[in-house]
Design brief:
Elements: H1 11-15, H2 46-49
Length: about 70
């Protein structure tokens, strides 16, 4: 796992540089993922963070508080 919680190489920074591949989400690059309710997801979808080679072995990458998980 990458240990740089807020820096440019923080896991969420790397993940959000990709479009979400989930058909129910398809969040654009730079945006957090969305749950089926339309709210900001609590974690990035696996299909999205698997695009980052350094994160392929991770079980989850949480959406940081600055992205307001659970907000509309």
């Amino acid at each position: 796992m990458l240990h740089n919680p807020g820096g440019i190489n923080a896991p969420y920074q790397l993940v959000k540089s990709h479009v979400c591949l989930m058909s129910t989400c398809q969040a654009p690059a730079g945006s957090p993922g969305r749950a089926t309710s339309g709210k900001v997801a609590l974690k990035y979808h696996t299909a999205r963070f698997q695009l980052v080679p350094a994160l392929r072995s991770e079980l989850r990458v949480a959406t940081p508080d600055v992205r307001h998980p659970g907000s509309a």
